[in-house]
Design goal:
Helix content is about 35%, strand content about 25%. It has about 350 residues and is of the alpha+beta class. It has 2 domains: about 10-150, 60s Ribosomal Protein L30, Chain: A, CATH 3.30.1330; about 165-345, Alpha-Beta Complex (Phosphoribosyl-aminoimidazole Synthetase, Chain A, domain 2), CATH 3.90.650.10. Helix 1 packs parallel to helix 3 and helix 4 packs across helix 9 (about 270-275). The radius of gyration is 21 Å and the shape is globular. The relative contact order is 0.15.
Length: about 350
């Protein structure tokens, strides 16, 4: 592969190079034919439902080349799809990756992109089995389709009054990382480990695949989804599908030390990052009230992310009431494509 552009020989040479990269994973169960034919030939597990998801990532919308390296873009393009499968309690199996980039993109950059994508795919036993490549007239464009399996998929539509609303991990880390990356200099007084942690959360999110698999099979879990656009906007989507409301506690949001340190240094509100920052890729779920402590303990025993209760499902019109210190407050909603303007959500949002 040369340094001036994609491999000599055009698209066929590029496909061969990608095929060689994917071949390093060796044979993967369920793949009869991978890259090289008109279609991949796959064998789903008997009795499992097929899950399918796709995400589109655009330069200067979902990432900026100023700070995102090609390997970061590759990693994130797979990770965000893994999070969707995890939110259904599913096992991710096969990915198709479509990449369009400008003609001046080098072979090294394309290779780095696929190496980043394959690094997170292999971690979760996912095979890249096909896709497409193209020249782009302006900027990078990535589209990944991911297929997975689940015996009993967890849905957004099954929350019930009395359920606990809970979330894995910590919220606001990706927004804190973005705030750091957008600056010309690092915020003063923040430990290097904290800066590295939040920027990694934005550039290379860790999807909760193991947690999703376990929670998807655990008794007492009702509804589940991932937090991609911000809990302030994602939670109302779950509530609308289930036809219920929620009473939420801002003071119980899991916000880690690194996020709080960056917020303090920049004069930002960490709670706003937690509800409206987006791209945390944590799991948001509802469960029977009596099951919460068992689920929390079970994840901890397996080395999974901490599960935190942040509210409860209530009967009534869909919408979330957010409380802080017992008083109702508005919260940042999060990212919304095609929205006319940013919005804040409070009662009935």
């Amino acid at each position: 592969m040369n340094r001036e552009g994609p491999p000599r020989g055009g698209e066929d040479a590029l496909v061969r190079a990608i095929r060689d990269l994917t071949a390093r994973s060796g044979a993967i169960p369920g793949v009869r034919v991978g890259i090289g034919d008109d279609c991949a030939v796959l064998e789903p597990s008997a009795g499992a439902a097929l899950l399918a998801t796709t995400d589109l990532l655009l330069e200067n919308v979902h990432f900026r080349r100023r700070w995102a390296e090609p390997a970061d873009i590759g990693w994130k393009s797979i990770a965000v799809n893994l999070s969707d499968i995890a939110s259904m309690g599913g096992r991710p199996r096969w990915a198709l990756v479509a990449l369009a980039c400008p003609e001046e993109t080098t072979a090294e950059e394309i290779t780095a992109f696929y190496e980043g994508a394959l690094a997170v795919a292999r971690r979760h036993d996912v095979a890249v089995v096909g896709g497409d490549t193209s020249a782009s007239p302006a900027g990078w464009l990535v589209n990944v389709t991911l297929l997975g399996e689940a015996t009993t998929p967890r849905l957004r539509s099954t929350a019930r009054p009395g359920d606990v609303v809970a979330v894995t991990g910590a919220l606001g880390r990706s927004a804190a990382g973005l705030a750091v990356l957008e600056r010309d200099t690092a915020p003063a007084g923040v430990a290097a480990a904290h800066l590295a942690g939040v920027t990694a959360a934005h550039l290379r999110p860790e999807p909760r695949v193991a947690e999703g698999l376990w929670l998807g099979a655990a008794a007492g879990v009702r509804a589940m989804m991932d937090v991609s656009d911000g809990i302030g906007i994602d939670l109302p989507r779950l509530l609308a599908e289930s036809g219920v409301g929620a009473r939420m506690d801002v003071d119980r949001l899991p916000i880690d030390e690194a996020t709080r340190a960056v917020a303090a240094a920049l004069g930002a509100d960490p709670a706003a990052w937690a509800t409206g920052g987006g791209e945390d890729y944590e799991l948001l779920l509802t469960c029977e009230a009596g099951a919460f402590e068992r689920l929390q303990r079970g994840l901890a025993e397996r080395g999974g992310a901490r599960l935190t209760a942040i509210g409860e499902i209530v009967a009534g019109a869909p919408g979330a009431r957010w409380l802080a210190g017992g008083r109702e407050v508005p919260v940042a909603r999060g990212f919304e494509h095609f929205a006319a303007r940013p919005a804040a959500s409070g009662a009935g949002a």
